[in-house]
Write a structure and sequence with these properties.
Blueprint: H1 2-24, H2 31-42, E1 50-57, E2 60-67, H3 76-91, H4 96-102, H5 109-114, E3 120-126, E4 129-135, H6 139-156, E5 160-162
Length: 163
């Protein structure tokens, strides 16, 4: 009987320890929290001071990054530098930055990597930031762009809007 009681006390102690360890590790991050906190890995500007705008079009879409207000003007050169670089990479099928932030299984990404030659990618500087235009005549590539934009909207959360 003593052995049995000792076993019960040991098991209860283990359960308490496991419970305390699981509580102290904190809640796991949501996908949006992860992207928000790790955005600096792929983007040189401050997410809180900028806004990603995704506009789906009949031929693809427009991705803008702009400062939220005039106090973020120091972010404009960083936005422009980043988007100009990304446009050049995307045009050649290099989506390594979005992969680093969002993961390789992001909707539309594999299709964009494989079909990069069928998408015209253009960078344009804007007064409050910059934009990348994606244009395709192939409906499969337009769909890939739309799926990719949708995933970004979902994962960027409050840092992104659709237009």
């Amino acid at each position: 009987m003593f052995r049995y009681s000792l076993l019960i006390v040991s098991l209860r102690s283990c359960v308490v320890v496991l419970f305390l360890v699981s509580c102290s590790s904190g809640p796991s991050q949501s996908r949006q929290e992860h992207v928000h906190h790790m955005g600096h890995v792929a983007m040189p500007f401050v997410l809180e001071r900028t806004l990603h705008v995704f506009q789906m079009t009949e031929t693809g879409g427009v991705q803008r990054v702009i400062v939220r207000d005039s106090s973020g003007s120091d972010q404009i050169p960083l936005i422009r530098q980043h988007l100009e670089r990304e446009a050049a990479l995307f045009e050649s099928g290099d989506f390594s930055d979005p992969v680093a932030l969002h993961g390789a299984n992001m909707p539309g990404l594999k299709e964009l990597q494989a079909g990069a030659s069928r998408v015209k990618v253009t960078y344009i500087a804007l007064p409050m930031g910059g934009e990348i235009r994606y244009e395709a005549s192939d409906i499969h590539m337009v769909t890939a762009i739309h799926r990719w934009f949708g995933a970004q909207l979902s994962e960027h959360g409050a840092d992104a809007v659709s237009e």
